[in-house]
Amino acid sequence: MPAISFIAQNFKHSKIRFFRLEMFHQPTNTSFTADNLLSLRVCCTDLAFSKFQMLLSINPINPQARLIQQVVDVLNNDGVIIYPTDTVYGLGCSIFSKKAMKRLQQIKNSNDHSGMNPKKPLTFICANQTEVQEYTQGIPTQVFKLLRRKLPGPYTFVFKAAKIVPKMMLTPRSTVGLRWPNHPITNEIVKTFGHPILSISLRISEDELYDDPHELHEKYKKQVDLIVDGGTIFAENSTIIDFSHGEAEIVRMGKGPVDWLEEV
Known about the structure:
- The protein has six helices and 15 strands.
- By secondary structure, it is an alpha/beta fold.
- The strands form three sheets. It has a ten-stranded mixed sheet, with helices on both faces. It has a three-stranded antiparallel sheet with strand order 1-2-3, with no helix packed on it.
- α1 crosses α5.
- The chain starts with a strand and ends in a 12-residue tail after the last strand.
């Protein structure tokens, strides 16, 4: 019986699209050899966007390095992704890509009735405590010692933004939200990428968050470049704590407990 295998990888905003077509015929009781395998590879540039979309399944406990690299390749090419964290599935892109940032805003505003509030700080997803510090103007020693005990975890901490933060991502108060999620996929993406990614939560309604990547694929497959399937999660907002005024202010109660703030 003849068989056809077709593999397509296409990043909408990358400069290179790769398609691979393999056709082969396997006679009865005959193993595959070079003689009965015909492989056609077509590499092309500047093609129009095709119908193929990617729902990339990654092991949420032991993420495969080659699959993580595929996600990073998309981010490096001004791509917008959907990926899992320890709280929600988020919409993400490089913090240094104006093109991706504009697309992310458009996607958020066209699908979420509340849209993006320019007065609320955008959230950067970090992969270690060094990055958390690097993108702030400074964290008091006592506060930092406490954060080290709580991170990675389901918190978003708001601080005054460092100069390295792109101006287009600053609030009128020049603040930034920083997260270090306790999720292997998220951490490996950011670690491999080399710097934080911008993150915005996705919600079905004001009170309901997405927890199933297949639902997200059906909704956003024509709007984003890649959706990372890290399995179904128990979706719950992160706890937001604002330290930009000096004293801790609880902006939103979420998954992370706040009893430890008494030590600040």
